[in-house]
């Protein structure tokens, strides 16, 4: 076992995790690009790449995850800054001072795997005082059963914590409790989230490090041990992840079983809910 390393957020990298995800919309979905301003364009177009694939921005997904983790665990969003970035209180010679830290969880944009043809619906606004109809407008949307591909990258966040965050997010989205994008009250934004792959990069097969990247904001010592069949990570308690493959290429790259990753996340999140 190596000597415990001190880690102030991202001064050094000890644990890098890449999770590739698929989001498939089960109802019309729209993430807007503002108001249309060209002839023939919908009043409210969707966000697209230059080659006309639809996009869910990483910032949108980060907001969905952060806000709903806070609601589910009854934590103020500002108290999640050690994980998602923001202002953090630090001790300095007996005095507390605020420092800004980056997010330990980075979200890529989620982009459809094919070009999305323009599909529109007409909507109206209701005058709440008179009950009258006003302002007919057209909305562009992504039709059902299109798949968006993207990824989450974790930096030094303990693997059990990250698995718990992903599990809660997938549970809330897949059960329809939480939706993505705009016009949710009109039936838009129902999606299914699935994990395609999980890969962890490590500096060595066995090491300890200290980190404040936790939901509790308290410094914890994390112990990591990688074997051919399982990856053991001890945070407040020990969790074991099933290994599907490992190779050494500058860093040790460990491929984890996505289903077992979610199973660990379920156990972690159940522990959080009992606190």
Automatic annotation (TrEMBL):
<dbReference type="InterPro" id="IPR052216">
    <property type="entry name" value="CRISPR_Csm3_endoribonuclease"/>
</dbReference>
<dbReference type="Pfam" id="PF03787">
    <property type="entry name" value="RAMPs"/>
</dbReference>
<dbReference type="InterPro" id="IPR005537">
    <property type="entry name" value="RAMP_III_fam"/>
</dbReference>
<keyword id="KW-0051">Antiviral defense</keyword>
<dbReference type="GO" id="GO:0051607">
    <property type="term" value="P:defense response to virus"/>
</dbReference>
<protein>
    <recommendedName>
        <fullName>CRISPR type III-associated protein domain-containing protein</fullName>
    </recommendedName>
</protein>
<feature type="domain" description="CRISPR type III-associated protein">
    <location>
        <begin position="23"/>
        <end position="191"/>
    </location>
</feature>
